Amino acid sequence: MNGTGDILVVEDLRESLAMMAAMLRSQGYEVRPASGGEEALKAVSERVPELILLDVVMPGMNGFELLNRLKSMPECSSVPVIFLSALSGPDERVEGLKLGAVDFISKPFERDELLAKVRTHIERYQLRAALERRTRELSRERDLLAASELKYRTLIEASFDAILLVDRAFNVQYANPAALGYLRKKASEVIGRPLASLFPPQVSQRQRQGLDAAFSGGRPQFVECRLGSGREINYQETHLVPIGSPSGAVESVLVILRDTTERRRLLEKFVQAQKMDSVGRLASGVVHDFNNILLVIHGYAEFLQGRLPRHDPGQKEVSGILSTVEHAAALTRQLSAFSRGQVLSRRVVDLNSVMLETEVMLRRLMGDQIRIVIRPSPVPCPVKVDPVQIEQVIMNMAVNARDAMPEGGTLSMEAGVAPAGRSGFRPDAPNGRIACIKISDTGQGMTEEVKSRIFEPFFTTKERGKGAGLGLSIAYGIVTQSGGEIEVESSPGAGAVFRVCFPCEEGAVAVRGEEESPAQRSGGRETILVVDDNAQALDLTARYLREQGYEVLTAGGGREALDLLKARGRPVDLLLTDVVMTEMNGQKLAAEAEKRKLTARTLFMSGYTDARITRRSVLKPGLSLINKPFSHAALQRKIREVLDGPAGGPGQRTKL
Q1: What is the pTM of this model?
Q2: What average pLDDT does the segment 54-78 reach?
Q3: DSSP string of 519-564?
Q4: Residue 482, Cα to own-chain centre: how many angstroms?
Q5: How many CB atoms lie within 10 A of CB 596?
């Protein structure tokens, strides 16, 4: 039987060395001969053999010395060495075995004995070397597996998703910390238990169907469940991932659970916000067109009122028309609140008067089941706010109170002035005083959780379809935009108390609807260019200004107005232009006219009551603007304000 292996033969007798080399090569071994110790060490340094046949008696370095040197080399420490010696007494054998030799062969040796021992020791060495290599490979594989297991265990245990491992009997074999937290159970209450025992029946049934499909089909499954009823509704996603054995059979399934309640609620809010944005855009367009119509109605009514004798019975009807137009204009301002960008027209007013002016509308709004109590402050409550918007705040809070008293109750409103520290208002309130309206009800009250979210957009405790959750959110936005704050106190069954507070202001309190002085009603002799793409509004405005003594030019759009100015060749005293028009908007028209030195002053007018004209960069904030519908007196005041003020370029900057 031929062998394989690398053999180093160390023999000082050339004839013996050649004979052994030839014999071993004939058996298929690779043989490297060495005639002495130094030559043997050099051969080993080049390549480590698998067996060394070593003569004991050699000149210079005998076999024992060479063996001692070889065993001190780490790479040779396990290489088997067979001594060859003509003097192989017991002492020599003992000495050789102590040094690490594996066997002794006496010279002269039998050929078969030598070949048998060579084959045996080479095979042992090769087998041992193979085992060591495999051991090292297994050690590396074990380390890799341990690192991989640690990595994936860390990933699973650090996951925010609840992860369970379920066997074919549908029992839980593993649960990560997130799963234990999700189930609110200890590991001992989960591991080894049936998965169905951990969830409500409707969820377990859906999971069982998914598990059956995962085990039988070997493909991932997805299950979505709805839990709870009424307002306490939660949603849960379950991903079922089959885990196969080396044979290909599915032995277990990874159950990955995720609570998607908050995500679905955010999605619903996002969709609702998109709906409200669409409603706001629609409302903004409707308000623009409706305000142009109101401007025409108001203008004709004012012309009619001016032509009727003072004591004519028709004066009452005309006054009714004008009053109705004012109420309609107030409604358009409320409608524009849907677009969440109302422009505040702030002035110093008495909160007492604002509160009292809502009384009639409140009594209609609240119905007969709710008693309304209003207590004005014995002293003025001067604050700088937009009174129309504060009325909107009161209305929104009153509606909220009404809904909290479905069986009836009492709504109370009380105004007053107090030091800033007494009501928790910010300490930097001007003059250290604040004016507040306290709105309280005898309704159902609120829990701490509801109270903490009461001003959040789209948050509502009403049934689906009976409230958008915007009333108090809009109120909060108006109050904070006006420099005020809202406080709320409530507990279940004890009603609610809202305090709307503003810093007190110095200065004269504006009176709404006060008559203009003769100086304010006076006209002028200046030249005014009126630009409006609404023909009726254009005609009525021009007619009124002509009656006031102005020289009036008209244009139905921006391009037409610019052509008229170019043809005229000299500037007009005032450009009175609508903001939003087709072809060229008012801002571009004013800029071009100023650039060509065809006007020194500009007054903008617009049917948009919200901030759309400034948000979309159609008109820069702070420019002179009058909102439609406006009275003739209001228009005259604004025109004189702009004309009598300093020239300052397009849209002369004045206080709105």
Answers
A1: 0.45
A2: 88
A3: HHH-----EEEEE-S-HHHHHHHHHHHHHTT-EEEEESSHHHHHHH
A4: 28
A5: 12
